[in-house]
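Task: sequence in, structure out. Protein: DNA-directed RNA polymerase II subunit RPB3.
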Amino acid sequence: MDYEGYGNGVNGDDSGPRVTIRGSNKTTIDFVLSHTSLALANSLRRTMLSEIPTLAIDLVEIQTNTSVLADEFLAHRLGLIPLSARDVDKLLYGRDCTCDDFCDNCACFLRLSAKNRSLNENMKIFARDLTLETRDGRPVESWPAGHNAGMDGEQELPTRGQPTIMDEGQKGPLICQLRNGQELSVRCIAKKGIAKEHSKWAPTAAIGFEYDPHNKLRHTQLWFEQSAKEEWPLTGNADWEDPPQDGQRFEYEAEPDSFYINLEGTGVMPPDSVMHNGIRTLQEKLANVIKGLSDEADAGVPNGMGGGGSPMDGVMNGGGTAYGGTAYGGGMSAYGGGGGQSAYGGFATPYGARPGY
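Result:
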């Protein structure tokens, strides 16, 4: 599957970036990004790693916990459970919502209640035992994966906020075990966030990134004892490029233009959705930079100077930054918040929580 000129509306024009999907399944996607620069390719990689919004449990209210696990340890395990990010764009960030605490517009609520009444066996509690509910405790209808097909492969996901179960036993990650008489009752609040805030919001487990598999550009120095060819075998990506010829002249000004990316998702969204959302998010970030520069040009202010006498004055005084009024987000922030005191958009803490919570 090829995407020629993805993002600029150009079809069949080799002047724009091109995405060639070599293979994909439920958890991974392997594609080639070509006709672009190393800077743009690496920007896309970093965006897919840390800038795509997903859902994760961020607050755990523990009513009863008589298990052997401490409350903090249990909350940490719950936070790492992958939750479906279906229609996550329709969910508000907590910092942008007008509610007093949390509501159904900015959070998903999950309930876990279990007690072991057996005399002989331990009871194992899995992610499948978490149930969705509304803010006032009413159960939420859960859609299985494939129901009510969405865009970009989201039809493969269950209801937003529901744990994604991918193992053969359809149990999900193990949370804890309860002995006879032990009880666990918790209420979890899942919020929208990105991996820049915490890795539990990461949509990817790993991203493989390679260019110039034959090392014709000599960007890598290979340490070897006898022979570099024998001790450093080529990857399968080498079949996509012509090998260097003996005696071929070295081009000092050559630039890489094909990048081989292998993406492994965590299950919160299909891997092709991670790629599409990464491209879309990067486009939005670049558009914000262009808009900021255009606004300065229209106002007659030199780029990056913010009315001061040097580019650094622009950063310190809030002119021409991608984050808005100041270098630290005094205006519109890079994370969607409006006019606040932090780079994360409008409130005093980097994770969107209001003061006092």
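The CA atoms of residues 64 and 235 lie 52 Å apart.
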